[in-house]
Structures are given as C-alpha cells and as structure tokens.
Amino acid sequence: MKNGYCMVVSKFRLYQAVVLCKSLAAHIKQSDTYRIFTLCMDSETYNTLLKLELVNVKLVKLKVIETDALRMVKKERKLNEYCWTLKPFFLEYVLLRYGDLDRVTHLDADLYFYSDPTRLFENQSQSSILISDHDYADIYKESEQSAGKTNSGIVSFKRNKNGIQCLRWWRDKCLEWCYERVEGNKFSDQRYLDEIPSLFEGVDYITTPGVNIAPWNDKKYKISLLNNEILIDKNRLIMYHFSCYKIINKKEFLLSFGDNIPIPIIYEPYTQALEKAINDIDKLNA
C-alpha cells in the first residue's frame, strides 16, 4: 500500500515539521512506499524546506490549492484556523492528483514517530476512514465536551467511494465554519469528525496501540524503555502528539498542558531533535 502523508505548515511550525519528516524517514522501512506532501503557508517555509531537501518530501505552495471561496474565508480566520480549514482541501488535492496513492493521511506538524506507522494501516486495511480517539485520561475527560471525542492530529482517507465522499463532506464543513471556539456542537475542524461514524460507511477508530499518545492521555499508561524501544504498557510507541510543547528559544522548551511534567524517555529525544533542527536551519539561513 502506498501512503501519502499530508501536512499544512507555516513558519511557526517549521521546526516541528522538519523533525516530524525526519522521524518518519528514520522508521519507515521501505522509503518508496510513502511521500510527505507539505502545504507551505508562506515563502519562508517553502524556501527553507526546499534547501533542506528532506527525504520523500514534496512541497506545494499555498496558491496552488487556494480557491476564491478559500480566499474569502481566509480574510476572517486566524492563521491557525485557516490552516485547519485547509486540511481536507489539501488531502483531496493530493488524493486526486497522485493516482498511485492508496491512502492519504493528515499529520499535525507536532507529531513525532518512534516506530514504523505502516502497521496501523495494515491492521485496518479494510477501513475507508481512520480517525483517532482522544482517549482522555480521567483527569481531562471533561475536555471531550468542548474538543470532542476525536482528535484531528491524524486522519486517514482511502481512495474509494466512502473515503472520497467523507473527505469532501469534511471539506465543505470546514469551509463553512472553522474557528478556535466552541459553538453549538462545533469546534475547529475537529468535532465534525465525531459525526462521521454515523454518516459514512467504513469509518473506524484506530485500534493499533501506541498511536496518538499525548499529554491528555499519557498518564493512563505504563511507559518504559526496553532494548531502546519505548513501550506504552506492553506495546511499542508509534507516535506521540507533542501538543502544547512550545519552543521558547533555541534551548528552552515548555509543556503548557495542565500541570503535566514531560516524560523524559519520550520528550528528551524529541527535544534533542528540535534543537538540531533549529541549529541546522539557522546555519542554512546564515
């Protein structure tokens, strides 16, 4: 199966995006089975990524996918809201333009891979749409009322009727309304995903362990290190979502999620990778 991974990246997420791309390249065993399509929101992002020549990364300029309708809503949305709006538009663009891809998967730029994600698609190969449960720890369970059950950090669509219909429905909903606030049963691009299991066939939550572990759920698990692999309970960690982990400067990073303290065996490799990306880009642009 050939996978197309998609990201929407601005200069404010550039370092994280570079680290994500490198983590994926480090763990996927067969490099010819995937590509990372990156929608660059600004020239700084495009030019820097072009110079870096990252493995299997295909750059797309914003003007390539912007429509008149998108340019209209862009005027009234903040940058992060517009980036969220663009997720399904970019997924559809990639899926329709690159006919060799079997599936397209959106990745938030603040994700990081610790092992090969390919098996999550192999484990649920019949699913047209794959979504991720927030899987909140009890202490954060009330957040589901605002942010929803489903997290949009990873969302995957297969090239078939169900996948394309669902993707286009999400696209139209995001164009209509996508803001960083709760309004009725809406919140950003995310709570629309809570609706799709009842609207479309072939929708499944990801069941492979170790996917989308994050500050809102990592306290549920026993996290350990065995033979240089991070285990979540007894399963390999595939992907961690570094939501609310902020870059203060080249050497300072802050987790601003409740009273959470970063888990060293998870956060230290990511922090080191961020430091390297910052230094590499500084040298590149010197």
Number of strands: 16
So how many helices? Answer: 10
Q: Widest sheet: strand order?
A: 3-2-1-4-7-6-10
What's the number of structural domains? Answer: 1
Q: Determine the strand fraction and express it as a percent band.
A: 15-25%
CATH class: Alpha Beta
CATH architecture descriptor: Alpha-Beta Complex
Going by CATH, the homologous superfamily would be Spore Coat Polysaccharide Biosynthesis Protein SpsA, Chain A
Shape: globular
Class by SSE composition: alpha/beta
Q: Helix proportion of residues, in percent?
A: 25-40%
Integer-rounded radius of gyration? 18 Å
Mean pLDDT across every amino acid position: 96
> Uncertain segments of ≥5 residues (pLDDT<50)?
none
The CA-CA distance between the termini, in Å, is 40 Å
Order of helices and strands: EHEHEHHHEEHEHEHEEHEEEEEEEH
The major sheet is characterized as:
7 strands, mixed
The CATH topology is given as: Spore Coat Polysaccharide Biosynthesis Protein SpsA, Chain A
